[in-house]
Design goal:
Blueprint: H1 5-15, H2 22-31, H3 33-37, H4 39-51, H5 57-94, H6 108-125, E1 132-134, H7 135-138, E2 146-148, H8 149-171, H9 177-183, H10 188-197, H11 199-202, H12 206-211, H13 215-236, H14 240-252, H15 257-263, H16 265-269, E3 272-277, E4 280-284, E5 290-292, H17 295-320, H18 325-332, H19 343-351, H20 371-380, H21 397-412, H22 431-445, H23 455-460
Antiparallel strand pairs: 1-2, 3-4, 4-5
Helix pairs in contact: 2-4, 2-5, 4-8, 5-6, 5-8, 10-13, 13-17, 14-18, 19-22, 20-21, 20-22
Length: 476
Amino acid sequence: MKLNEQQRIKLNLIFKPQQMDYLEIVLQGYFNENNRKHLHKYFYRKFKEAEKEYFEADEFFSGCLIVIESWEKYLQDKVFERKNELYLMLDSAKNSSLKYNDLQGKTIKQKRLETIEYCEQELSDISKNNFTVHLHSLTNGRIAYNMHHNEVLSIKLAIQKAFQKIENINSEQGLLPQQVKDNESKTNELEKCIHLINYWTNEDETVIKTILNTETELINNYLNPFSKELNIHLLAKETLDSKKDLIKYYVFEFWELQGFYNKYNELLFTGSLYNYSPKKYEYKDKTGKKRKLNEFENYVVNSHILFDMLFNEIQLCCIKYKIAFYEICDELNFSTKYFDSGITLAFEEMSKKALPPQQINKSEPELIKNELSENINKYFGFFNGNCPRKHKQILKNEDFNKLIQWTNYYFENEFKVPEISEPINVVNTNKTFVQLAFKYLFKKLHKASPYPQLYLTFTKEPLALIHRTKKATLKR
C-alpha cells in the first residue's frame, strides 16, 4: 500500500526517535579501522539504517556534518585566539611597551625587531593546520584523541560523497534503464586511475604490470577517459561553488598517494632518472652512482608520471573555470610538492601574446623570417625572457637561437630530429613551461592526431634539462 504525504508525516511522528546520535555515528565511522578504509560507504550504510526510521537524506547527512562543523569551528577559534595573541604581541613590540626578562645577549631594539619578524611570519603562515581538535573535551570524554584538520576534512568529504550517492540515485528515478546505466559510477574513470597508481593501499599485483604498458595505452585507457569524465561533470555543475566542490572531491581522492610518494621521495625527487627503455629507468644519485631500478621501483616512477599527468588535467580544468587551484590544495592540506603545480602559471605565460617590456632582452638574436619561424617564435619567445619564478633569463641568447633553428629543421624535414652535438644544458625554468610550449606549438602546426612518433624524442633532446623531465609526462 502506497502512503500519501499526510500518512507519512503521521508515521514519522509516531515511530521516529526523538534524536539520532550523530556524534557516535561519526566516531564509530572514523575510529573503527574497517569503517575508516571505506568511510563514504559506511555513512551510506548508516543512512540506509536511519531511513528505516523515517529519516530523510538531507536531515541525516546535515546532522553528521553539524558534528564536523563544530570541530572545524573549534579549529577556527584556535586560529583566532592565536592571531589575537600575536597581534597584541606585535603591537607591544612596535610601540616599545613589550618587556623582556632575558635579552639573551641582544639589545632591546634587536629583541623587539626579532619579535616583530616572528609575529609577522607566524601571522602569514597560521591556519587550521597548526592546531588539532581536542576530542576528549568536545565529546565529553567519549574518546581521547587530538584530530588534525586533514582528518576532519577526510570525514567531511566522505559524508558529502555518501550524500551525493543518495542524490544521484534519487535523480535517476523515472529515467529510462539506459539513462540510469549511463549515470552509474559517475567517477568510474577517477576510481580506475587511483586503483592503478595506488598499490600503496590496494596491493593489487596486476597494477604493476599494467602501468608498465606502453604510454599510448595508458593515455588512451586512463588519462583521456579521466579528462573526459572530469570535464563532463564540470559542465553539469551549474554554479562555480559546485564546480569547486567537485574539484575538491577529485583532489582529495588522491590523498593517500602523498604518503606513497613521500616514502619514495629520494627516488622520485633527488638525483636523476634516465630511460633505458620506454618504461624502465636508471637512477643516478647525487654522488654520481648509477643503478637500474627494479620492477616495483619502475612502477613507482611510472605511477608518479601518470599522477602528474592527472593533476595537470585537474589544473587545466581549474584554469578553464577560473577556480583557484592552490586555494583548494591549501584548504585540503594537500601538498603541491608531489606533482608539478606550476601549470597554472605556465598556462598564463603561454597565453600572453607578448612578453612584458621588462622581460624582453634587447639583444634578442635575429631569426629567419618566415611563417614557420614566426609561429615557433610566438610559442617559444618566452624562453628568451626571464622566468617569472626564478627571475633569471631562461635560455642564453645562443641557446635560444639553437632551439629555434632545431625546431625549424624538425618541422621543415617531416619531423626528423636534427643532429645535436651540443645540447642545451642550462634551462632556468620549471619543466611545465617547456612541456606546454611544445604541446601548444604542436597543436598549432600539427593538428592531426596522433602526433609523430618522434614528438616525444624531440621534446626531450633539444632541452637536456638539468632537472628531471620524463618523456611520459609529455602527452601525445
